[in-house]
């Protein structure tokens, strides 16, 4: 499945969250990762993130089951295939 | 259609982008908006954003055509219905 991960975490934890997500997904722009993972990996990502972040931090993982299209306005930091 | 908008823009423009997107979508967390809009509104959002941002800024608009699920880790800044 395709997922989009967006995170809003304290500066102290940004690098750790970034490095953890980079093991599974592609960096798209600040605080945004995206990519194809399976259900086992999704559970790993969720568990790993919950250990890394603080209760006041916020991470949203969008699990997409259908098609999607990405419209880019401005500069695309890390170009990916935008129509899947 | 459902859209997720994530933006990575210079501090000088964050408030303007935020206020513009708030006219169409729901704020989810820092630099993330989400909601249901139609194609006419999508074009308005794209046009409006391209006037507001600088070429070095980056905005990604995910246009979702299928179902999706949101997994929340940590604190959900602005709770929405997470399974559509």
Major β-sheet strand ordering of chain A: 2-3-1-4
The dominant shape of chain A is globular
Calculate the terminal CA-CA distance of chain A, rounded to whole Å.
11 Å
Poorly predicted residue ranges of chain A = none
Name the average pLDDT of chain A.
92
State the CATH class of chain A.
Alpha Beta
The radius of gyration computed from the alpha-carbon positions of chain A, rounded to a whole number of angstroms, is 13 Å
Provide the β-strand percentage band of chain A: 35-45%
Q: Please tell me the CATH architecture of chain A by its name.
A: 2-Layer Sandwich
Major beta sheet of chain A, specifics?
4 strands, antiparallel
Task: Count up the helices of chain A.
Answer: 2
- What is the element string of chain A, with H for helices and E for strands? EHEEHEE
- Tally of DSSP β-strands of chain A: 5
Write down the CATH topology of chain A: Alpha-Beta Plaits
State the largest interface. A-B, 38 and 38 residues
The helix fraction of chain A, in percent, is: 25-40%
Q: Kindly name the structural category of chain A.
A: alpha+beta
User: How many independent structural domains of chain A?
Assistant: 1
From the structure provided, what is the oligomeric state, counting identical versus distinct chains?
homodimer
Enzyme class (chains A, B): hydrolase
Binding site for Mg(2+) (chains A, B): 8
Cofactor (chains A, B): Mg(2+)
EC number (chains A, B): 3.1.-.-
